[in-house]
Amino acid sequence: MYTHFKEKNMLHTLKTYFGYDSFRPLQQDIVQNILSLKDTLVLMPTGGGKSICYQLPALLMEGTAIVVSPLISLMKDQVESLQANGIAAKAMNSNNDETENANLRRECVQGKIKLLYISPERLLSEMNFLLKDIKISLFAIDEAHCISQWGHDFRPEYTQLKAIREQFPRVPIVALTATADKITRQDIIHQLNLKEPQIFISSFDRPNLSLDVRRGYQQKDKTRTILEFIFKRRNECGIIYCMSRDKTEKVAEMLLNHGIKATVYHAGLSASARDKAQEDFINDRVQVVCATIAFGMGIDKSNVRWIIHYNLPKSIESFYQEIGRAGRDGVKSDTLLFYSLGDLVMLSKFAMDSGQQQINLEKLNRMQQYAESDICRRRILLNYFGETMDRDCGNCDVCRNPPERFDGTIVVQKALSAIIRTDQQIGTRMLIAILRGNYFEELTEKGYDKLKTFGVGRDIPARDWQDYLLQMLNMGYFEIAYNENNHLKITEAGKKVLYGQEKAQLVVIKREEKPIKKKKQTATPLLPQTPLVLSEEEKDKELFEELRILRKRLADQQAIPAYIVLSDKTLHLLVAQRPTTIEEFGLVSGIGEYKRDRYGKEFVEVIRKFMNK
Ligand code: ADP
Ligand code: ZN
Predict the structure, then answer these.
(1) Phi first, then psi: what are they for 479, rounded to 5°?
(2) Which fold has domain 7-201?
(3) Closest ligand relative to 303 C-alpha
(4) Per-residue DSSP letters for 295-338?
(5) What atom of ligand 1 comes closest to residue 44's alpha carbon?
(6) Mind listing the pLDDT tens digit for each residue in 196-220?
């Protein structure tokens, strides 16, 4: 009876405040565990729904929940979205002035705040003051991997959080993270001194993210593909990750030249320029951010619809974390990875020069295997994170378009023979020039134009050679001597093909070709293009657009990001369900009572008008 009551209560609170009808896997067990005052460790992928796990207990328990978070921007985002649901949440960090803090302290002591977000430094300095004066329901440690030197975002301030357990032995602690291997996991438990914590690990699969890899593209092809990709996704924002600062700027400039609102984000910019880029992105003032890896940790923007990797990332961890920034709201989102020989050369160099050569080369190797895979890519990712998947995903390029092979022995022989004839003293650029029969000074100086193989690969375009060479490298026919000017060295396996003892199977290269014209992005389509009768799908799109514009207006009025007013997922549900009364509006998933009362009237009006058109 009692547990039944509690369960009903939990679901009721979930619906009232967050507008959700049911829990996601593990959420309910986690909430239950915290309500039983037990320590808890939660591992869930980005977008998995970690926040609810401690926010719901905070609402159901007496007192204030103290949430430790490493970044001011993350706190801001969380506090805004809680407030947008009518929940009393506040943040205490170095952004506040003295009066704000004095007010905040008073509200806390009066028991008016349900969730207090706080930086680790502040937490320590308030340990014997504010925290002793208020009733604390629970401690939540967000981004808990920051406590471990093994993790990738180590923050020394986090290590002092062990004081919490000593000072508040009876208050439950819940630690949450999206990235923690076994060592980091143990470290979190050990350092926070958690008492027999229950560990909840959810699947790291993100089925709503599509996976796509393009191999061996040169800059021109990348540009064309990126423009096509973005033109197909007007008004949908995304991130392009690049290996260098310089590249982020070039790509952003290229996009701007094509009328796409883009900005850059990298460590070479001033703090204020970086803040501006982030704010512009969060508030949908720019569609695209071209960034180095530094971008994204500080944002919770739920409607990032796509991620492009302009270059190969250095490890699967980085890759998965970066694509994880798309589709946090669970709506279908796309990811695209470009993978070229040049990237591989550069990244291998970085790895060799790093302090941890072996580990980093191994990580790069695994990343390369992913990019090269001819089995379902999601299987490889999940397998890497220690999960097994017993079927193909159907949402990656390999599943959708399985690679076809052909007997490429002659192609391979041409390339290997050119390498042999130069005494293995050339890199890929020179090799392709020899095969294609191109003349340039360095080539003729060395007499390579006199070789028997000069021009034997003229029938294959240079970019296809790039692709084939990458395939040959991955099949182990040659190696790149990174310590010898990246010269190519034929392996034993390569020799077997070269001398006709074995055949080589290559993957057929498929490319869709379409020239891209420069065009300006316009919000309204030109009149002649608008058909008189719209299909259902087009109608849905039009309504979505109208709702999106209303959402943006409401967001701007309150100076909060649009996705905090309503998520993309909720907008899609509104389009599908078309509620025409405020009550119906309140039943849509993601709309709690507070949002129903605040926004219901205006959204319902737009929907009604649209339906009467
Ligand atoms: P995380 O912190 O794990 O990255 P969030 O807590 O931000 O993820 O949740 C990701 C998205 O999923 C948010 O838009 C959130 O509102 C939504 N969400 C969480 N729990 C549920 C649920 N039970 N039902 C529907 N949506 C949910
Ligand atoms: Zn797949």
Answers:
(1) -125, 160
(2) Rossmann fold (3.40.50)
(3) 1
(4) SSTT---TT--EEEESS--SSHHHHHHHHTTS-TTSS-EEEEEE
(5) 3
(6) 999 999 988 999 999 999 988 889 9
Tell me the CA–centroid distance for residue 393 and ligand 2, in Å: 4
Instruction: Kindly report the number of other CB atoms within 10 A of residue 91's CB atom.
Output: 24
458 C-alpha to ligand 1 centroid (Å): 54
Task: From 12, 59, 329, give the residue whose CB has the most ligand 1 atoms within 8 Å, as the site to mutate.
Answer: 329
Mean pLDDT of 526-536: 58
pTM for the predicted model, two decimal places: 0.83
pLDDT of residue 152: 66
Mutation to probe ligand 1, out of 51, 200, 591 (largest number of atoms < 8 A from CB): 51
- HEC sequence for 111-153: CCCCEEEECHHHHHHHCCCHHHHCCEEEEEECCHHHHCCCCCC
pLDDT at 233 over 70: yes
The whole-number pLDDT of residue 521 equals 45
Same fold, 7-201 and 209-400: yes
At the topology level, CATH places domain 405-507 in Arc Repressor Mutant, subunit A (1.10.10)
Q: Which residue from 84, 184, 109 is spatially nearest to 143, judged by alpha carbons?
A: 184
pLDDT at 298 over 80: no
Q: Say how far apart CA 319 and CA 380 lie, in whole Å.
A: 13
Domain residue limits, the chain? 7-201, 209-400, 405-507, 536-611
304 has pLDDT over 70: yes
Residues with CB under 6 A from ligand 1: 20, 23-24, 27, 44, 46-52, 300, 302, 328-330, 567
| Element of type H or E holding 62 | none
Question: Tokens representing 102?
Answer: 């004095």
How far apart are the C-alpha atoms of 286 and 256, rounded to whole Å?
Answer: 11
Q: 3.40.50.300, 3.40.190.10, 2.60.40.350, 3.90.550.10: which CATH number matches 209-400?
A: 3.40.50.300
- As assigned by CATH, the class of the 536-611 domain is mainly alpha
Contact between 132 and 110 under an 8 Å Cβ cutoff? The reply is: no
Which atom of ligand 1 approaches the CA of 48 most closely?
3
